[in-house]
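Deliverable D5.2: sample structural annotation.
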Amino acid sequence: MRSLVTLLALGLFMPLLMAQTALFESTKKKAETGDMVAQRELALIYRYGREGVPRNQAESLKWLRKAAVAGDAAAQVLLGLSYASGSGVPMSKTEPVKWYRKAADQGHALGEYYLGMAHLNGLGVPQRESEAAKWLGKAAVKGDSNAQNVLGQMYAEGRGVRKDEVEALAWLTHGKYMSESQEMLREALKKKLTPEQLSKAAARREEIRAESLRLSPENAEPRDGAYRKPPAK
């Protein structure tokens, strides 16, 4: 009976293993021909031990760097985050900004978000709130929720932009992944603003959503990805 169960288990497991192996080999073959998307996918396979492949940080970084150098914006963000955290590479303040900027210059929302946060907090670059607002605004309008919430805070406080509480609520209400302080700010604005102002914020929020859908449909309702971090506090 035990042998029968083992055979049945193997019968169910082997097709899955074969499919994983085939996917890994296919991805690796594409990566070796210079396909930068495949290089990034291969890096993630090694990073997380996917497709039946053991985790290998060195191989992950090797392929991630290849993809980033080749111009893959998502890989550039990932490499920047690796330098920011010291994950497999020496921790650096300037290297993350270098890679975030490369991604941001391609219009990648997460690259724009992280570059904006670097300027907002003075990490690897001089602290410049106006520059932070510029890049966070680019990411926010594409639907990046973290950028939307930070931009909402900046409008509420007049940091890097003119103070506008209606605009602040429009961004804060639309965004997800809110920190506790952002939630408190949103609720305070809802109580403070007049019915007319609340109506204007709701209308503006719909404009934001429509623009997000137009610019980047896949980001209008952002999904967690391999390189999304929790919201800034």
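Annotation notes: The chain has eleven helices and no strands. Residues 220-233 have pLDDT under 50 and may be disordered.
The annotation will be released with the project's public dataset once the embargo ends.
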